[in-house]
Design brief:
The chain is about 10% helix and about 30% strand. The protein has three helices and 19 strands. The strands form four sheets. Strands 7, 8, 9, 11, 12, 15, 16, 18 and 19 form a nine-stranded antiparallel β-sheet that branches. It has a four-stranded mixed β-sheet with strand order 1-2-5-6, covered by helices on one side. Strand 5 and strand 6 (about 95-100) form a beta hairpin. The longest helix has 14 residues, at about 10-20. The mean pLDDT is about 95.
């Protein structure tokens, strides 16, 4: 039981995937259930800046009592015959019922970054294309100054922290030159994205260590833009926490930014947007860019970052696209 904007969403989703696929018994694999709503750490109708409608709010206690009635009291309340995966699709603002997660029918599609070398801010020329770059393309560059980090505006959080959590209108930060913004054309039809999301980023830095942050954003026709998923990678841990390795300045590396997962139906007329930057503070600790042991000193280094999106280094976001569901469903 969790929320798409819960700080623990990664553990919730991975826990279900692990149990349903690798549980120690057939019963554990078949009877594990998961419920994910448009919330933070607890059910609600509204979260962040969005009212997801009356169906969004559920009574967690009722769900828990029903679960224990079945397993501890042996009450046949229909739980065993229901699909084990219950997800709230934002945008459509409805619950859907599935047999597995990630969904078996998922079409993982790459949305490639494009620009004329100036994707900085919402006034830049960054775009998204379903077609892989066919030729050379000017990279995008930005400066990351850890003394002036991009402030946290929405995202996955929990439990009374003072940062604004959930889906928040991103326009207050989209004028910054240290955020690369890639935006699609207006959609001609609904695009549902449900499942794990990641950004594959080809980038270099003049620093030996730095961070790269990505956000998936839903841009409404009126220009409001709401974060739907996010992730961060610390360069020295690009090969895993157990294998830290500093970068060589100027060398291009391939980074994979795990954005955990979401379920958002981008509506007709909306645009898909991706932010790429190097900070998200104070939600995530700033990287001082020095390569030194963290917390050992107060030294900061300004880093010059370069993001590539050409034929050989096609930076992109991988979206778990779901075929059209048609009319609103009640159970599958």
């Amino acid at each position: 039981f969790g929320g798409w904007f819960d700080i623990f969403s990664q553990g919730t989703l991975r826990g279900y995937v692990g149990m349903s696929q690798k549980g120690g018994t057939e019963q554990a694999r078949k009877m594990s259930n998961i419920v994910i709503g448009p919330w933070g750490h607890g059910a609600s109708r509204s979260f962040g800046d969005i009212d997801f409608g009356p169906e969004a709010n559920v009574n967690a206690l009722d769900l828990q009592v029903r679960w224990y009635d079945y397993w501890l009291k042996g009450i046949d309340n229909g739980l065993a015959s229901e699909p084990p995966v219950k997800l709230f699709v934002m945008g459509r603002n409805e619950w859907v019922y599935e047999r597995e997660y990630p969904l078996a029918r998922t079409d993982y599609r790459s949305f490639y970054f494009t620009s004329e070398g100036r994707a900085n801010s919402g006034k830049g020329n960054g775009g998204l294309s379903w077609s892989k770059p066919a030729s050379s393309s000017s990279p995008d560059r930005f400066t990351y100054d850890p003394a002036d980090p991009v402030p946290t505006l929405g995202g996955n959080n929990c439990c009374g922290t003072p940062t604004p959590a959930g889906p928040k209108d991103q326009r207050p930060i989209e004028g910054r030159q240290d955020i690369l913004i890639y935006t699609s054309d207006a959609l001609q039809e609904e695009l549902e994205v449900t499942g794990p999301v990641k950004v594959v980023l080809y980038a270099s830095s003049d620093a030996v260590d730095t961070d790269f942050v990505a956000k998936l954003v839903d841009v409404h026709p009126d220009g409001t833009s709401y974060n739907m998923a996010e992730g961060i990678v610390r360069a020295r841990y690009r090969d895993g926490l157990s294998a830290p390795s500093l970068m060589k300045p100027g060398e291009v590396y391939k980074f994979e930014i795990d954005m955990v997962g979401t379920s958002i139906a981008f509506q007709k007329g909306h645009r898909v947007r991706v932010h790429v930057t190097s900070s998200h503070f104070p939600q995530f600790d700033r990287n001082p860019n020095t390569g030194a042991e963290f917390g050992a000193n107060a030294e900061l280094k300004v880093a010059q970052q370069t993001v590539y999106h050409d034929a050989e280094r096609p930076s992109h976001i991988v979206l778990p696209v779901i075929p059209s569901r048609g009319a609103r469903q009640t159970q599958q």
